[in-house]
Specification:
This protein is an alpha+beta fold. It is built from 12 helices and 11 strands. Helix 2 crosses helix 10. The relative contact order is 0.17.
């Protein structure tokens, strides 16, 4: 069967050559379109490392010194610290609120800004990490519902007496096993500092996969917002209407005043609007191109198949069955498409070796690989496999549908139509 399919391709080498050139061009374009779409879709499906459902954010600012409401006494650090805790406690006691915490530091889940630092694993090895601030004993880990891997639970972490030398890290940036219970070195490589707990990786931004994170201790006065979680039995729409009115009246302490109350998912959506638009554009382009390719390539094979009625009639007169004819034509199409994908992927490989394969922006440049798309060989193999499958579906459809009807007619009718 395969030998006969190859002979048929060679017998029509001129027509097959043009068809092969068309399929090679399609394969190259498919590689270029599918590479970012495959990786970004995979990234979007990865868990965030925390639970954004029923999570809300209350942003606030301080009055400008030129404002009539500005108070010099309230601008002192101790007073600012106390007022921040009073705001958090009032939000946490509001009916329907399960827990509340501070959002401190430039790096936070779903934010646009971020801070990258490094930790010393050995004398000669440092590992880059995102630095995420939190205020101890503020229900931070409980409110965000981070998932711990080693050490204490989120509730225990929230009430643990932490030292500045204690490290709370994610578990994925060392390939030689769990890091909980090990010790790191300080910046000056003098003291060893323990890892007291490890958590699952966290999505700093929704367009990048979960990253390596070190949780840094912050003061309450360094917070830019209060994050709180509603109980599961509370209606968010009715809650927010009353809460916004209450917050405007009751949460103005010292120089602090409320600027916005929003769901945490809206906060994430606002910071990732550009990436969502870019991803949607990639999806639309890929769908449009696949739509055109589907009808273009399938139509070409459809016409090629319909034009071979005489050959089908002759083969049937010699006893060929409908199933055998269908398999023969499918082998021819699959053979051509496979060769085209090999050539197309080889051409795309030259581009990838020069410019690289697609990688999400703002990923932490770690010395270790965590995701399959960071392996060049595996990344290229996955893209090539997806392109091959798409080509098989398109070509198979263009052959199977006309052959299903033609292969069932009698030999005399096929020869008569020709």
């Amino acid at each position: 069967m395969i030998r006969l399919a190859l002979k048929n391709i060679w017998a029509r080498k001129k027509r097959s050559g043009w068809l092969l050139a068309e399929l090679v061009a399609v394969a190259v374009i498919l590689c270029h379109l599918m590479d970012p779409l495959i990786v970004q879709t995979y990234v979007n499906c990865l868990p965030a490392g925390y639970d954004p459902e029923n999570l809300y954010r209350l942003a606030f600012m301080e009055y400008d010194p030129a404002s009539l409401r500005y108070s010099k006494e309230a601008a002192e650090d101790d007073v600012r610290e106390e007022n921040m805790w009073r705001i958090r406690d009032r939000v946490g006691r509001y009916p329907g609120v399960e827990s509340a915490t501070f959002q401190a530091g430039s790096t936070t889940p779903g934010s646009q800004s971020y801070q990258i630092s490094a930790i010393w694993w050995t004398d000669s090895l440092n590992v880059p990490v995102f630095c995420m601030g939190f205020v101890p004993k503020s229900n931070y880990f409980t409110t965000f519902r981070y998932q711990t891997v080693g050490g204490l639970s989120p509730q225990q972490l929230d009430w643990m007496e932490l030292k500045h030398s204690d490290h709370i890290l994610t578990e994925t940036y060392m390939p030689d096993g769990p890091i909980f219970g090990r010790t790191l070195q300080d910046v000056f490589k003098i003291h060893e500092e323990p890892v007291v707990a490890t958590l699952l990786p966290v999505k700093i931004n929704m367009n990048i996969p979960p990253q390596q994170v070190e949780f840094e201790i912050k003061k309450a006065r360094e917070a830019q917002a209060i994050v709180f979680r509603l109980r599961d039995d509370i209606d968010p729409s009715a809650f927010l209407t009353n809460f916004r009115e209450w917050a405007d009246k009751e949460l103005q302490l010292g120089n602090y005043y409320v600027t916005r109350v929003e769901s945490y998912q809206d906060f994430i959506r606002y910071s990732t609007t550009y990436f969502e638009y870019d991803y949607l554009l990639k999806v639309l382009l890929a769908c449009f191109f696949l739509f055109c390719i589907f009808f273009g390539v399938s139509g070409t094979f459809w016409m090629q198949t319909r034009s071979r009625c005489e050959e089908i009639g002759i083969l049937k007169s010699f006893g060929a069955t409908s199933g055998r004819l269908l398999r023969l034509f499918l082998f021819e199409g699959i053979g051509l498409a496979t060769v085209a994908v090999l050539l197309g992927c080889t051409i795309y490989l030259q581009y990838a070796l020069h410019s690289g394969l697609y990688m999400p922006d703002n990923m932490c440049c770690s010395a270790y690989v965590h995701y399959w798309f960071e392996f060049f060989g595996l990344h290229f193999a996955v893209v090539s496999a997806v392109v091959w499958l798409l080509m098989m579906l398109i070509v198979g459809f263009g052959i199977y549908v006309p052959m299903r009807g033609i292969s069932r007619i009698a030999p005399t009718e096929a020869l008569h139509e020709e």
